[in-house]
Amino acid sequence: MNLMRRGWAWALDYAYVGFWQAHAFLVRADPAQYLTPDPGAPEGKAPVLLIPGIYETWQFMRPVAKHLHAAGHPVHVVQKLGYNRGTVEAMAQLAAAYLEEHDLTDVVVVAHSKGGLIGKFLMTMSGSTGRVSRLVAINSPFSGSVWANFFILPSIRAFSPHNPTLLSLRNNLDLNGRITSIYSRFDPHIPGGSFVDGARNIQLDTMGHFRPIADARVLQEIDRAIEAGERDSA
Asked: Which segments does the entry list as coiled coil (predicted)?
């Protein structure tokens, strides 16, 4: 892949970020609109919990929310995550509290970037047994990112491949069979990719870290991952 194409993909990626960050600030959407499927939508679909990445609110994943809601899934978000700047463990505890408060079971977590780490941590928590059925992660740094070592901010350095939380999650192989990792052929934020041993790994011919969230190919693979999980649990 030539440098010009990568540079263009990077520019489009940040244009996408800028649009959705501005959109989230200017347009305060109510996530409750996604909790109840519309009349005529398929019935009996699994509940979904969306977990965004670092410095992202739930609205960053609105393309996923709209798609899954149209498919009949009740879509939940944890507004207390805010911009998701806390530790993976702290954010997972907030997600676990939401699941318990709303007594949700057999939930599919659909997450972007850091959200995938939070989702896997959530699956390790004893109180989440039976509440989370599987995790579908988009461009998540399961093995960390070498770029994190060059940052001063603790919230970014936490993505170092040597971070104790990431190492613990990586070494927990028992859960990987319930994980689908979808990732781009070129992700400037995670040069090592998002492959997970023992998981269902899907590398798409998408470009970037953020923009693939709204890519039709990614949305289709999310559908397939959820459907596969439903067949396995039937």
From this structure: none
Give the predicted TM-score (pTM) of the model.
0.92
Overall fold of domain 3-233: Rossmann fold (3.40.50)
- Where b means 16+ CB within 10 Å and e means fewer, 189-225 reads bbeebbebeebbbbebebbbbbbbbbbeebbebbeeb
Tens of pLDDT, residue by residue, the chain (234 residues): 576 666 666 677 877 777 767 766 666 788 999 999 888 888 889 999 999 999 999 999 999 999 999 999 999 999 999 999 999 999 999 999 999 999 999 999 999 999 999 999 999 998 777 899 999 999 999 999 888 888 888 888 999 999 999 999 999 999 999 999 999 998 888 988 899 999 999 999 888 999 999 999 999 999 999 998 766 665
Tokens of 124: 């390790």
Q: Which residue has the tokens 């959109």?
A: 23
Q: For residue 76, give the amino acid letter.
A: H
Distance of alpha carbon 79 from alpha carbon 98, whole angstroms: 10
Long-range interactions of 144-150: CB distance < 8 A, separation 24+: 144/192, 145/189, 145/190, 145/191, 145/192, 146/191, 146/192, 147/189, 147/191
Q: Are 76 and 100 in contact (CB under 8 A)?
A: no
